[in-house]
Structures are given as C-alpha cells and as structure tokens.
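User: Assemble these into one structure.

Assistant: Restating your components, then the assembled model:
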Amino acid sequence: MSGDEVLAPRVLVVEDDPDHRRALTLTLHLGGYTTSECGSGEDALVQLGPNLAKPSDIDGVVLDIRLPNIDGVEVLTQMRAQMTTRCVPVVLISAHASTPIAVQRDEYARFVPKPFHPDQLLVQLSELLPAPSKNAR
Amino acid sequence: MATKEATVSDTERRGAGLPPRAENSTDDALVALTDAAAGAVVHRDGDILAVNPAFAEMFGLDDPATATGMRVLDFVAPEARARVAAYITTPTDEPVFHDCLRLDGIPLIVRGEGRSIVFHGEPARLTLLTPVIDELRTADRLHESSEFFRLAFDHAPIGKALVSPEGRVLYLNPALCELVGFDATQMLGQSYNALSHPDDIDAGTPYALALLQGNGDSYQIEKRYLHANGHVIWVAIAVSLVRMLDGSPRYFIAQVEDITARRDAEAALRLETERFRLMQTVAEAANTAEDPDEAYTTALAAVCAHTGWPLAHVYRRLAEEDLLEPSGLWHFTEGDATQFEPFVVATADNTLLSGVGLPGLALAARRPTWLVAGTLSTVRAEAAERAGLRSATALPVFAHGDVVAVLEFFSHDTERPDDALLELLGHVGTQIGRVAERAQAREQAAALDEARARFVAHAAHELRTPLATLRTVAGLLGSRRAQMTEAELAECCELLERQGANLDALVDDLLDLSHLQQVARPEALRAVAVDEWVTRALEVALPPAGVTVHRSLDAGLCVLGDPDRLNRALVNLLANAYRHGGPSVTVRAERDGLDAIVVVVEDDGDGVPEDLLADLFEPFTRSDRSRGAGLGLAITRALVEQAGGSVAYRGSSDQGARFVLRFEECG
C-alpha cells in the first residue's frame, strides 16, 4: 500500500451473508475505502470499540438490517446513544423496501434497499464520508 | 174481542177444548175449571183468582186452592216475566207460548190460549194451558205442529231446534241431539245457550237481540258447541225468527250444521301457511345475511312471531369446543322487557358445557329439545320462575355438520311443541347455519389470502438475498472492470456462479413446496421396505467429514407410502442433522403400537431453538445459524403427509434434535 492509501477512510461492513459481504467489500475498495468486516451485530459493536466507550479506527459503517440476534437498527440505535459513535456515518442496507424510521431522522445515516447497483451504495456513502478521489480505482 | 168470540159456535169451542160460551158469567169459568185442560182465572192485575186440579197437577201444587192469591208471574221463568206481564196487561186471543216454572223449579213450556171473562163480578182472564210437546205432537190445527212439519223437522239431516224468544229449548230434532250428544228430553226447557262452548256463549246474542227488536228475520254465524262428552264442535248456525201476526216474536228456528272437519282443515291450512311463511323468512335471512348474528336475530323474531313465545336468546359455541357461551343477543316479543331483566342478567355469565342446561342438551342431542323449566337445576331456574317462564325449547344451528350455536326460546306455558313444530325448528337451525358456513368460508379464504401474501413476501425477501450479490457484482463488472485486478475478476465470477446456483436451488424449493401443497395425495401408495428406503436415502445424503451415521432398524418393517417422496423426506432430515447436529447421527426404525411404524432421525447437537418450535414446519422458519431459506422442513412435512404419514419434532436441547416420521404399517 502507498502512503496515500493509508489516509483512505475505513468502513466497517456488517453483513451476515458471506458472499454479499465480499461483494460489498470489493465495491468499497474500488470506491476508495479501506474496510473491516463482520457477520453479526455483536461483532460490529465490538469492532466499533468495546461497548462503544472509546473511539475506534472505524470512519463509517455499511450495515445490513437483517442480522442474527442484534439487528442493524439496534446496532444503529446503540451507536447513536454513545458520544464516540453518535456522528459516525452509517448506510443501512436491507431487502425490505421501506426506509427505517431510525434512518429518517438521522442526518448521518442513509438507506439503500437491496438489491442495488454498487454505485448507488458509493453515492450514498460518499455524501456522508467522501473518499479521496485519488484513492478510487 | 167479544165480537170475535161471538163468531165461534159452541160446537167449535168444545172441539177446541174450550168451554161452551156463557158470556161474562162466573159459571162459564167454573165449567172451564172442571174441564180436563189445565186452566187458571187471572185478575188483570196478575193475581190468580182460581185454578183447576189439572193446573195444580201441571205445576206441582198439592191443592188447587193454594194457587189462589199467588201471582201468575210466580209460575213464569224469570227471563220471560216481562213479556208475560205485558201480555196480562194487553192480552191477545192468539195462542202464546210461555216459559213457565213449576213450583219445584222444573221448567215447563206451555201453550196458552185465553179470553176475557167476568169472575165474581170482576173482569178477569181465563187461560187454558197445554204442554207444548203434546201440542206439537198431536195438534194438527196449527201449521207448526202438523205432521208434515214434524216429519220435516225430525228427518232433516242437519240439526234443527225451536227456541223460545227467551232462549229456552222448545224442541230439538234427532240430528241435533246426535250432534251435541244430549237427549231431547234433557234439553227441553233448558237454555239453548247451554250447548255453547264457554268462550262462544254470547256469540249469537247480539244478532238474536236484533231480531227480537225487529231488525231482520235471520242471521248466520259460526261458533263452537261443547259436546256432552266434552269435545269441541264447530257449527254453522242459521237462525230465523218466526213472528206472530202482530209481529211479536213467537220462536226461533235454528239450523245447525257440523263444520268441525272444515274448521280443522282450515286451521291446518292456516298453520301450514304460517309455517311456510316462517321458513320463507328464515330462508331469506339464510340467503342474504352477511353476519351469522344478523340471521340468528331474524330467526329468533320469526320463530317467536310464529309460536307466540315471549323471549328468545342465542348461545354461541366456542370453536371446536363443547362449550356454549351466552351471546347477549335477545329477542323480546312483549313490549315490556324489564320483567325478564333478572333472567337476562342470570344468563349473561352462564357458560354451559355440552349436556348441561337446555342449550347444552340440544348441543349434545344435535336436535331441537324441549324442557319444562325447573326440570334442570341450573343457575337460571330461579330467575326463570320469577319471570314466569315455564318451559323452553332449544334448537341447534349447524354449519358443515357441526353445531355452531344454539337458539333458545322461552314460553309462559308448559305445552310441548308438537313434533311437526320441532321438526320445523330443526330446519330453521340447518337453514340459518348456512350463514355461519359462509362466514367460516370467508374467514378461511381471508386466512388463506393472508398466508399466501406472507408466503410471497417471504419468498421475495429470500430471492433478494442472492440477487443482492448478483446485482452488486454485475454492477462492478459493468462499470469498474477496468480497475479490477485479475484475482478480483476471478472472485467476481465465482460469486456470480455460486449465487446463481443458490437462486436456482431456492426457486426449485419454492416450486416444490407450492406443488406439494397443491397436489392431492397420490392415489397409489404401496409397500416400501424400511431398510431399502433408509439405504437409498443414505446413498444420496452422504454424511460430511466428521459425521457418522448409525443405523438401528428392526427387521422386516414395511410401510405404506410413496417411495420417491419418502426418500426425499428422509434425505432432507439427514441433511438437516448433518448441518445442525453434532458428530453422531442415528436413524432408527421400529414398530409403534399395533399398526404403526416410526422412523426416527436424531443427532447429538443442541436441538432446535425454543423460539422456532411453534412454526418449525412452516415455510421460511430457520435458525440464525441456518444459511437456507427455511423451506426444508416445510417441504419435508408436505412430502411425508403426501406419502401417507406424519412428522413431528421430539428433541430437546440436552439430547439433540429428534425428528419422528410415523406411518401406517403395511400388513
């Protein structure tokens, strides 16, 4: 990796379907982001900082709503309840077509219904978390 | 008057039973009084001056002398006194019938003929009296007593009577005697109205009075008589009033015809018509009502209108249970419902088991049932008694052969509804039940629609999961292929390939399930040897590395089923066990009871999570760990049921999952 790439924002991909998680990761890389990934809400909360108490290196989250146990909306709610993650940009994705209420009143959150073209995701994410254009491939 | 008498010769007078004329002499009267006919000399103020022995005998006097000083009216029936008093004041020479009374109270009808005389120097009236029967039988001088008249009377096929203006029987013909069951001798002198049914006793009175007052000559009515042995006879009566020359009433002639058979037929027809109307009302409600309650209410009102029952109520049956619950739907026929309030309150919480209370009995018997209140000791008995409800009838309402409600009707009397009415009420229950049938069908259709919509929504969601990857990857390949490394390109192809296959499998499962749910059970089930079946399934569902399958099959077991479906079902269960179980999976087969065989697939995993158990065999039920769409067990159940068996989950978190397939043994 070059020095420029180190500056790329880090996005956490939370998706329980491994194939789709892989596709999302690939999309984000091509859009100029670096990624972390996990398959459950619990893991996401850990990666976002133990109990969300202290800042992590995550700059944004792509969050599937349908997850085992703790779902995406719950993860978002917990994030917004903590100072450290209150303003971390989140793009929720779901096969359910309607925009969750939690997103409607959250200026740092967006919703993209599945299935989607990768550019749709990148457009929504870049509005909240721009990737340096030189990083995009 | 003197002039008239002067025209009659002495010879004629003797022939007529009158003494020879000795005008205005006391002797004349004395001669008369020695004669055989009963006679009385009466002062014009109504006092009796003298009577002869024949009179004394006729009226039950021991000595003729005792009559002297009595009043004529003492020998006249009370209701005839006014007329006789008028006759005494203004006498006529025409023969007159009198309603008399002997001293011993026995009524007596006599025919009187009088003339004016002087008795001991006072103007008086001599009257000769003959009993009327003798008059009718023997005298041919008067037209009404002629042989011709008597024959016409006695041989008439319909009842005939002669009745005095005061209403006493002068004569009855044999036909009438037969009709009412009395002898003529019993009836003579009695009130004619004594023949009437108590409720109809005055039915003809206004018309008879009108005739007596000179309005018209005859009338016809229909009324009830009471036969001597107590039964009711319907009669049509035509009554004419025969008048004397001066127009004053002489007697009534009544013609009486038995119309009991016609009235019975009319009553039967009327009842038939009313029952037809009741069924028409009920059928219309059954055809048009949307809501069963609406139909019940109509039926309550229609049955009460038909029977005159004052109160009715609906018990609803709780679905699939032998329990009846009061609906609170009441019908009050009588305007004032407050008298029933305590009974309504007593009913409000009175839930009944089958066989308990009248509605419970009707539910158990599945037919209309009648009871006298108080026969059953229920909580409502006391309230029923206070409301004056003395018997009740309950009818079950049927939908698809099941009782869905019981209508109960209450009566103030204890008269049992006849069999025809109970049968009719049975039809009411069947008719009204059609509304409940339609309501059930609507509910089932709605539930089916809802299930279908849910299935489609689930299916769409499941289809979107592979589609999400396909579309993302296809998008990347379309717009960013130039920027991708060779490794990334290869990975994209791999993702496309895998998700395409997932999508294909999912569509297969959906079609499978839909097909299995639609297709009826195969007609030809056949014998399938259990060991062959298990062997074949294990060839398809090979255990993955690290999993061992143990077989424990009793020898010679054979089930009745469809081999292909059985195989797919077992393969699904094995795949499930490999995916969710531990390292050991066991397939057991053994006899269960007399004619059943169970095939068990068990593993040593953690079992099915509690929250999935309720809907385990429903489509799209899956655990969080599962990668599938949750169709496997739904498909398995459909396969097993089509193959003639059943599947159940009997596992636990300690012992692992255990699925039990149960089939009829093939003998």
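The CA atoms of residues 445 and 451 of chain B lie 10 Å apart.
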